[in-house]
Here is the input.
Amino acid sequence: MYAPSLLDPAADELKLTDFTGATDVAREARTLLGERFSSVTFMYVLMRAFEVEYTAACDASRWHEFHGGPRALSDADLEKLLAPWLDR
Here is the structure.
């Protein structure tokens, strides 16, 4: 796990980014975090940047671009899940 001091700058920058939805946020998080990007670090920056609830962030970590499987979230699922926190 990474120290918050390594992840907080990405969360702060993510808050200021223009985006059109959750998949844009996820892809921008991947760009900002670089090699530190994982389902766990994605959860952290979601909670830090947008005050996403822990359980929703856990669900978001199942996004299909992290890993596949029967429980993976599609882009549409991710959009629906995170809409309450990302709608501006």
Remarks:
- The longest helix spans residues 4-16.
